From TrEMBL:
GO cellular component, one term: cytosol
Protein name, UniProt field: Response regulator with CheY-like receiver domain and winged-helix DNA-binding domain
GO molecular function, one term: transcription cis-regulatory region binding
PROSITE patterns: OMPR_PHOB, RESPONSE_REGULATORY
Keyword Zinc assigned: no
InterPro entries in alphabetical order: CheY-like_superfamily (IPR011006), OmpR/PhoB-type_DNA-bd (IPR001867), Sig_transdc_resp-reg_C-effctor (IPR016032), Sig_transdc_resp-reg_receiver (IPR001789), WalR-like (IPR039420), WH-like_DNA-bd_sf (IPR036388)
Organism in which the protein naturally occurs: Spirochaeta africana (strain ATCC 700263 / DSM 8902 / Z-7692)
Domain Response regulatory: 3-116
Length: 229
């Protein structure tokens, strides 16, 4: 069971969601503003953050941007905005899921359950260190410690970025379609938006530097370009 920080200014929505999450066995901390969110995440005691996009005197997007500067905690956005562009913005900021209001508290519980299961299973068959080479660079994936190192630097990844990288490095050189990555790596949380994959791949590429660790195969998808050691 997880410690969940729920940030939502609408009391009815917040209390209903918190009640269902507690019935699932989770510990839920509630906030009705953005104040205190950064400190709570920095404390290291939060397993998952549910964050309203539109908060009094605060933007959930802005808070997520700051959080991604120091933490990979899973983030689920709550929002009344249902356009694809808004969802893409959320995923570009490092969100792991995006729930549109009005929603059923049961739906939120299912999404949280799926996301937590994905996070817990990330290292299920990678209990060792994998090393890859590309040009003069080395990429190291430590499944036990849940760490990624590029040369001598640690790379901070979100849950979705980690899952995609873990999947494509299992099969170097194999091409994966966007649909396959949605199905295998993101599952229920992606809502079938294939552009979500492009967003996560773009974020991964930015974090992995100038070497082309992830190659685009035009008209089909992506493949990992590193050579296993």
């Amino acid at each position: 069971m997880a410690v969940i920080l729920l940030v939502e200014d609408n009391q009815h929505i917040r209390e209903a969601a918190a009640e269902f999450l507690r019935l699932e066995g989770h510990t839920v901390q509630e906030l009705d503003t953005g104040a205190g969110v950064l400190d709570a995440v920095r404390s290291g005691g939060i397993d998952l953050l549910i964050l309203d996009v539109m908060l009094p005197k605060a933007s959930g997007f802005a808070l997520a941007r700051e959080i991604r500067g120091f933490s990979g905690v899973p983030i689920v956005f709550l929002t009344a905005k249902d356009s694809e562009s808004d969802r893409i913005i959320g995923f570009e900021l490092g969100a792991d899921d995006y729930v549109v209001k009005p929603f059923s508290p049961k739906e939120l519980v299912l999404r949280v359950r799926a996301l937590l299961r994905r996070v817990q299973d990330d290292g299920r068959d990678t209990g060792h260190i994998q090393g890859f080479r590309l040009q003069n660079h080395r990429l190291e994936i430590d499944g036990t410690a849940h760490l990624v190192r590029l040369d001598t630097h640690q790379v901070e990844l979100t849950s979705s970025e980690w899952e995609i990288l873990l999947h494509i490095t299992r099969y170097p050189g194999q091409v994966f379609s966007r649909e396959a990555l949605l199905r295998s790596c993101l599952g229920y949380s992606a809502d079938g938006i294939t552009r979500t994959v492009d967003t996560h791949i773009g974020n991964l590429r930015q974090k992995l530097g100038e070497a082309e660790w992830i190659e685009t195969v035009r008209g089909y998808g992506y493949r990992f370009g590193g050579e296993p050691e």
